[in-house]
# Entry
Amino acid sequence: MLPRQLSENGLKPEQVTWDEEALRLIITDYTHEAGVRELERQIGAVFRAVAARVARGTTEHVQVTSAFVRETLGPARYVHEQRLTTNAPGVVTGLAYTPTGGEILHIEAARYAGKGNITLTGQIGNVMKESAQAALSLPAGAVPKDGPSAGVAMFTALASLFTNTPVRSDVAMTSEITLRGMVLPIGGLKEKSLAAMRAGISTVLIPKLNEKDLVEIPEEAKQKLKFIPVENVDEVLANALDRTSSGQHRS
# Structure
């Protein structure tokens, strides 16, 4: 894309050089898509700004830095979630797969005086509501659930809340659950792993049945992330709850 946009904007290689961080900034803060069309458009916009400077005769060479990108493209258009800086009970980091790639999401649970019902906030679809009900009840039986892979995170948020035990802020998780607490396989492991790495997560809990998919994870992510395969919610809690902080938070 860089050579193509260089040529299309009438520039020569010796007239412009790019910092790697400038390119990364465009990718993270100015694009959010499954493909690269918008990325090329933004790169083209930066090249046009360079061409304008060269045409005015104010410079013969432009170094494209992060500051130059911000000056040209304006404020960041997209902000990616980062890992939690606090680990209060009831707060969990989940992982989602979207049409534009992997994302982390923070799931929070709070309790209040009531009649034993569960209240869901935000724009939640029917499948997500079923995930929440499964996370809350976990009765005998086994009804596999298909959907957003948030059941385990919801269950962990509730378990954390009711035991007053924080969840480790460096841990993220992805999976649905059955009504008896078994962890189900998920899709998009590669994309979710990259999102976890980008957010500063160090440990990812994945379904045992997805262990075979680890071969698809980029080497950089494997070096920065510790993957822990789990089969049931007991194993999830054993690896996710921060027992050293238990009892330090008041309800």
